[in-house]
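Structure, all two chains, one model.
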Amino acid sequence: MAGGYDTAGVWVWGDNSTIDNNLIVSFGELGDGIFLNDIEGINITSNIIATLGEQGDGILSQMSEEASLLFYNNVIGTFGENSSGIHLAQDSYSNLSLNNISTFGNYSYGVFFNESHNNTIASNRITTWQSTSYLIYLTTSGNQTVYDNFLNTSTTGSGVYITDSNLNYFNTTNSSSTNIIGKSSFGGNFWTNANGDGYSDYCVNFGSDYYCDSSYRIVAGIDSYDYLPLTNYLSNLSTCGELDTKKRYVLNTSLSSNGTCFNITINRVFLDLAGNTITGNATGDGINISGYNDTTIKDGLIYNFSNGIFLNNSQDNNITNITLGDNNRSLYIDSSPSNVFSDITLNNSGQNGVYLNGTASSNNNFTDVMVENSIAPYYDIEFGTEGINGTWIIDSLFTSYAFAGEGGIVNFKISGYAMVEFLEPINGSGAYLTLRDVDIDNNLLFVNSSSNSGLNKSAKITFYGISYTDPKPQYSSDNSVWTDCTASTDPSCNEVSYSGTTFVFNVSHFTYFRSAETTTSSTGDDDDSSSSGGGYPTFRPTEEELKNGYTKFLYRNWKISFKLENVSHIFKVENVNATNSKISISSETQEATLSVGEEKKFDLSGDDSYDLQVKLNSIDSSKANFTLQTIHEEKPESEDGEGLGEKIGTIFKEDSSLKWIIIVVIIILVGILLSKGKSLKKSSGKR
Amino acid sequence: MKKKVMFLLIGIFFLINIYFVNAVTNVTGCGVLNVTNEIYELNVSLSSSFDCITINATNITLDCMNYNISFGNATGGFGIAVSGDGGETGIDNITIQNCYLIQNESGLNDSAIFFGPSSENAVIFNNTIENYGNETLGIMLESNSVNANVSSNIIYTNGTGTSSGTASGIIIAENGINAIMENNLILTLGNDNSGIFLMENVSEITIYNNTLWIMGNRTISDHAMGGVVMDQDTYDLNISSNLIIMGLSLSFIEDYYNYSEEDESWIFNGGGVRYCRSLGLGR
């Protein structure tokens, strides 16, 4: 039994009373802690209230317009669904201060206002525990002032939901009073969440106060800003050392280090290198994370350490937009699972670019990782221990590779095209992992098991962007003659699913695979697939690198993304032949075909001057070596607009009537000249 | 000589003291107590099939000395009625203490302790009440009561409320003023009952440090129900430091009071008060 249905611990219809220091527990559905109806002048102070039934609010007050109610210093916990901490319906001019509110059920809001206006919510601690439960839910409720609250949400975003409401305010006047987190910066709210990575947890604060440097928009699309969001740390980082506080560090200068630069000794550090470089002396680690997790490292360059980044017994780290150069090992991953490395460039490692060691180093994800550094006997990526499983290589470039012993289970993906998930460990070694040995293209997958028999394993293949009515798998030994792949062929195939435009099937071992329409001939020549898109590598040189000349080997569909005068451009290799390569540059697309040794200049900004020079240096096995360099060079006159001949030609092309008028004029002019010539001849004859 | 005078004075003082101090009268049966300034004490348990004790005079103390009073039948009956059921008004300065009132099972209506309208300075202290009938209140202070003090009582009601009456713990009726209710334990099991109910225009009431355990549901939509209910137009009330539990969760009991499921039927068949005592609740 439960009981307590539709009741209240304290039921109030009267006025001007005090309810304080009570402990109220309500178990029943619709059982509120305190229920107020059409009242005024009530002080509810220092009570402890727990409700356990559904729709059991901690405090529910309704129809108390201009009531001047005070809800102060109460501890409220609601455990059922649809059970808010403090729920005001048609109430106004009330004050909610210093309350500690937690809701544990779904759709249970910390503070829920419905048709309630001009209330103050200040210095409360509000926590929700379900993704459907907002901290503050305002519907048809305007002109609230919300400040100095510690707001810990279980939802995405800020934890505030606003609908059909006039303007609400999420900070008060800036002052040096002590705020809810004990700092002398009083004004806005502290925004955190269940993961500890809310706005206040990781905002940038370069100042000496404890406000985030930027205002915080509470609800997208609605005028709702906290202009003084609180934080409890300062962001500035200007020296190498131990990072022992869970916060956002922002490096404000490039650093040189004798030995290890940053040693992270706490979980959930956010290290923003802010485009700066840390340079070592060939010893120690650029960044060392040993035994701590959930670190984010982004936006910088790490050069000349023994290990660029060393993860030791560390997991769930996120490392993005980092360039590692001239390190002995760029990424050393030792017994460290479930890390994500994205948008990483590795250059000139003395040994391995990426070295994974220990079977615990499983489920690591490499997305947009470009490695060009292997020097035998080392590798772009080496799995130093057998049994390292669940590695993902997505839209990345690894050339040389090696697996220890029986190897491990690895998955490959080119976004928009295809994915191969090996169902058993792959092993061996080779020189071109993602370019030749596992080659993913548009509705085409080739695993070169003759190059490395260790790749000839069963796998699940997923093709994206397929538009066939009824696709079927096909295999080929030469990418020319295709045969339907079934359970009885060798290799054998088993279809798994076809949903939307995604076709999935398992294969017993490898050669070329593709999908085709079931109604097509089971054996025949190659035909075009229907897929589109693609996640081929995209390099992102800095402006400085472009200025000095940025040289890359690029395959078909590979890109270089760069900015000129804050405008983004994409350089793309459209095709590579034996002697030339077709390229395109956008945003406004320009195309050119360059032969080996040829260079071409491009005006990307439309200001009659060249901004970019592209040179095709060489072609090697369908890989073209380009150098891109930013320039500022006036166009020659003949190329400034068009020459006369070009103009005429253009006119001829564009307007046939003009063409005939000009021809007639020319004929007339020629006729006049001829007639003058005859006159001259005649006159000379008179003499 | 001096010694004789001294003994004489002591003797006179002793006689005067005996004359002026209230007399103590033993109560040996149910009936009417109507001697002003009298102290009545039970020296036996009493039993009635309807009303038991009626107090009809002011300045009376009834001390039950922890003896039992059983009362009521299927149609009603009071345990202790001050001014009787609908009788005289304004019986002031009455103290009722140390009584153990047990309603005969299946009783209906009325109260264990009833104060008629306009009573002043009522003191209801350290009593235990077990009510089993529907619509039977623990303590009722009729309208316009002044300066009541209700403290350290244990009240258990097993009946249910209806649209015509409830089995709540304590009710202060309309216009009651300046009462204090503290350190009481109230346990109500039936639906539509409240712990302490303050009716319209009640004011200046302090409800302090009570334990109110209200297990029933609200089934009558236009009746308020709560641990404490402050009805319309009440004002200047102070509800402070009380433990209020609405409903029952076996897991809650198990966690906090080593309750076992076997105990449930016992509680609901008359063991509620003893159970509460076993939890250390109330006195």
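Helices of chain A lie at 199-202, 433-437, 543-548, 644-654, 656-686.
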